[in-house]
Specification:
Largest sheet: 10 strands, mixed
Helix content: 25-40%
CATH topology of the largest domain: TIM Barrel
Number of helices: 11
Structural class: alpha/beta
Number of strands: 14
Number of domains: 2
């Protein structure tokens, strides 16, 4: 393990790293060189940085470390989706998913080791949260996917969604700094408009997010048109009910003028009836949102079944002026549900 006083080299924006270098007697321009090595060339040791002096490298090695993440398992679907089971330095396991779309390649990142939100339909919550993902571990997830993609296809990784295991807004400070780092033009240079963060509805954190006005896309895991159903499947609703959540969404839209994605998993006979569609219409009408209807990936540990009414539900929403899509399925021939591969590896499924 690293000295407790050492810091992850991935934890800093370029300007912050320049200041860190200055503090330890290294010229600020060395930070530009480091950024080039770790984000453009994907080098993960100081010894490989050939244009930095041996003296500076020795100093850097005494103050900074590289987060270690190893690939434990790789699954690949016929549609090109790749799911990684990654092993962290403390032997914890997380999942990362690489997906191909018409607009390019996107990676879905994990924000926590386990999850405490307790959503009844979700495989991620089968194992409770043990800790948050660090800033460096966020970055390393991206770099693992970026490197694998380039080596196997020669293609670039251009889009990021933080929708994997865990609740991103329950790891708010690390998430925000990760976004600050990944957007750096001299680093990974991911446009904020190509990044989406999803939350199950931590209203207090949505309000903090709104104040940042950071141009990153916001998605809300709603999954129910009323409190009665949402209380059944999402415990967070007892702390922040739908009205409270909608008020926060309205405030976000008012401040940022950015459209919000409403995620809605279609579960048979629970939230997929025509009356549910009309309730959802009343909830969302005249709001700057669009609805993403998500085919449910069944988890053995619960009794929920995928709805067969997604097209009917979609048609009702569209005919009543609600912009919506049915999410394109990815990874349906591998462990598709978020957290499913990890749970199987740990013997939970």
């Amino acid at each position: 393990m690293n000295n407790i006083n050492m810091k992850s080299i991935y934890s800093f924006t370029l300007e912050e790293l320049k200041n860190e270098c200055d503090k330890i007697g290294i010229k600020k321009f060395v930070a530009d060189q480091i950024y080039d090595w770790i984000y453009k060339k994907c080098i993960n040791t100081f010894d490989e940085m050939t244009n930095i002096s041996k003296k500076d490298i020795d100093t850097l090695k005494s103050y900074f470390f590289f987060d270690e993440i190893n690939i434990n398992t790789v699954q690949q679907d016929m549609d090109g989706t790749i799911k990684f089971l990654l092993e962290l330095s403390d032997n914890n396991l997380i999942e990362v998913v690489l997906m191909s779309f018409d607009y390019g390649y996107s990676v879905c990142l994990t924000s926590q080791v386990g999850c405490n939100m307790g959503c009844k339909f979700c495989a991620s919550g089968l194992i409770k949260k043990s800790r948050n993902i660090t800033i460096g571990e966020f970055i390393k997830q991206f770099l693992v996917a970026k490197t694998y993609l380039f080596k196997t296809t020669g293609q670039a990784l251009t889009h990021v969604v933080v929708m994997g295991i865990g609740e991103p807004f329950d790891n708010f400070e690390n998430l925000i700094q990760f976004l600050n780092v990944i957007k750096q033009q001299k680093g990974l240079c991911i446009s904020p408009r190509k990044i989406t963060v999803s939350t199950c509805g931590l209203v207090n954190k949505i309000k903090e997010w709104t104040k940042l006005n950071n141009q990153v896309n916001l998605a809300i895991s709603l999954h129910a048109p009323n409190d009665e159903i949402r209380n059944q499947i999402m415990p967070i609703n007892r702390a922040f009910n739908i009205k409270c959540l909608m008020d926060a969404i309205d405030e976000y839209i008012s401040v940022t003028n950015r459209r919000v994605t409403i995620e809605y998993i279609m579960i048979n006979d629970l939230n997929d009836k025509p009356e549910h569609a009309y309730e959802l219409i009343n909830l969302l009408k005249n709001k700057l949102v669009y609805v993403n209807l998500i085919p449910y990936n069944s988890v053995f540990e619960n009794s929920f079944i995928r709805s067969k009414k997604s097209r009917q539900f979609y048609d009702i929403l569209k005919s009543n002026g609600i912009t919506c899509t049915i999410r394109q399925e990815k990874g349906s021939n591998i462990d598709a549900a978020c957290g499913q591969l990890r749970s199987k590896k740990l013997g939970v499924l």
